[in-house]
Amino acid sequence: MTGLQINPTLATATEQDLQEVQEIYSYYFLNDTVTFEEVPPSVEEMIAWWRLVTEKLLPYIVIKNDKKIIGYAYASPYHHRSAYRFTIEESIYVEKDWRGFGVGKQLLGEI
């Protein structure tokens, strides 16, 4: 990554972003244990989750460098039980080659 122009921009995620989001997520599914998924979600499933999050007026954002998504983050309901109705959790995923460049920190600060 040395010598690359790093000029990340934050944006609200759109449905068109979710193919790249799914690709980033798939890396973690295949190579890590952080997702707790047993079956990798399809782009359609990622779109359904994005809709659920955004319909609740919670943030779902992407960070791009030269128009390529290098990370994303969203806030989602923590649990469906009434006692948790004001509790949310954040999820942050950074494209594997961009880890260590402050992308996650920037996403966390925005979310």
Describe the structure.
The structure is a single chain. The chain has helices at residues 18-31, 43-55, 103-110; strands at 9-12, 60-65, 68-77, 88-94. With 111 residues, the chain is α+β, with helices and mostly antiparallel strands. It has a single domain, classed as Aminopeptidase. A 4-stranded antiparallel β-sheet has the order 1-2-3-4, sandwiched between helices. β2 and β3 form a beta hairpin. α1 crosses α2. The chain starts with 8 loop residues before the first strand and ends with a helix.
For the largest sheet, list the strands in their spatial order. 1-2-3-4
* Strand segment tally: 4
Helicity, as a percent range = 25-40%
- Roughly what fraction of the amino acids lie in strands? 15-25%
- Would you list the SSEs in sequence order as H and E? EHHEEEH
CATH classification class: Alpha Beta
Number of helices: 3
Q: Tell me about the biggest sheet? A: 4 strands, antiparallel
Arithmetic mean pLDDT: 91
The end-to-end span amounts to: 26 Å
Tell me the number of structural domains.
1
Low-confidence stretches: none
Radius of gyration: 14 Å
Approximate shape: globular
Structural class: alpha+beta
CATH superfamily: Gcn5-related N-acetyltransferase (GNAT)
| Oligomeric state as shown | single chain
Known CATH architecture? 3-Layer(aba) Sandwich
